[in-house]
Q: What sequence folds into this?
């Protein structure tokens, strides 16, 4: 069984920082792109950033310059450093990864369970 487990969420004041982590585990053969999304109450899930296995990154305009995605391939973990947080960043944050697991010939998308981030004004 393959799992993605996020951690690092919590309550922070506006202007503060948080670092989210997402660790993958299980019978993983290979991982391509890893990404972070978020979903605020009453809103659709929103893309934030992704990073390829080679380290190339891509960001949504809403977080560019404030959030930084990185990954540690040895630890099979992706991170999201969030600085200058705003109340509108309040949401459940999810990580996702394109992974090929042993026994399958294709890559599939896997999602974590999410971690709550609340930014107070």
A:
């Amino acid at each position: 069984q393959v799992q993605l487990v996020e951690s690092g969420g919590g309550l922070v004041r506006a202007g503060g920082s948080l670092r989210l982590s997402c660790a993958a585990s299980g019978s993983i053969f290979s991982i391509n792109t890893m990404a972070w999304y978020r979903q605020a109450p009453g809103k659709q899930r929103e893309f934030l950033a992704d990073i390829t296995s080679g380290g190339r990154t891509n960001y949504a305009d809403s977080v560019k310059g404030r959030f930084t995605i990185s990954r540690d391939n040895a630890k099979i973990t992706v991170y999201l450093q969030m600085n200058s947080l705003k109340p509108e960043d309040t949401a459940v944050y999810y990580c996702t990864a394109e992974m090929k697991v042993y026994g399958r010939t294709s890559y599939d998308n896997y999602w974590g369970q999410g971690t709550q981030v609340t930014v107070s004004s």
Observations:
- The first strand starts at residue 3 and ends at 7.
- The CA atoms of residues 2 and 26 lie 4 Å apart.
- The chain has no helices and eleven strands.
